[in-house]
Specification:
The chain has 155 residues and is mainly alpha-helical. It has a domain of 100 residues. 70% of the residues lie in helices and 5% in strands. The protein contains six helices and two strands; from the N terminus they run ββαααααα. It has a two-stranded antiparallel sheet with strand order 1-2. It is elongated, with a radius of gyration of 21 Å.
């Protein structure tokens, strides 16, 4: 099987990447890196307000007032707190979700054999995703919540 990918700077309309090659897995990982890292980065400020609402619901009553409190107490810089950790963490998670998922899907399908791989396709897809996430995710979320709310403990 072949997968097609479009290169923006390439004069050719598309190039062929062989499935289950290092380039294929690297391309999947790059897709995960960009899609999860950038989308979660865009929502970091909302996550900060949500975490603060969980820690101090009287002070951070709702999302809109939470943004106001965050701006008033921490200034504009408060909205950027945790961006680097979010970018690194979720980009890393995206590598696992996309790259490792494809890798484990191939491994488990090979272990099951052609006949059983088709019969148990849903289970193989599920366990491949779970394995990829567990492989990549261990310890990444542990640091996120304390960074989001550390200013509350020093008040």
């Amino acid at each position: 099987m072949k997968a097609r990918v479009i290169f923006l700077e390439d004069k050719r309309a598309d190039a062929v990447i062989q499935l289950h090659t290092p380039l294929f897995y690297a391309t999947c990982a790059l897709g995960g890196l960009l899609s999860t890292g950038l989308t979660h980065l865009a929502l970091t400020s909302l996550d900060l307000v949500k975490c603060n609402m969980q820690v101090d619901p009287c002070k951070y009553r709702d999302i809109s007032s939470g943004f106001g409190v965050l701006l008033q107490e921490q200034g504009l810089g408060g909205f950027f707190k945790g961006w680097m950790a979010t970018l690194v963490g979720y980009r890393s998670q995206g590598v696992g979700k996309f790259g490792f998922y494809e890798f484990f899907k191939k491994c488990y399908s090979d272990i099951a054999g052609l006949e059983h791989a088709d019969k148990f396709k849903t289970f193989i897809l599920f366990i491949s995703g779970a394995t990829g996430i567990v492989k990549q995710h261990a310890g990444l979320q542990i640091r996120r919540f304390p960074v989001s709310t550390e200013h509350l403990s020093s008040s």
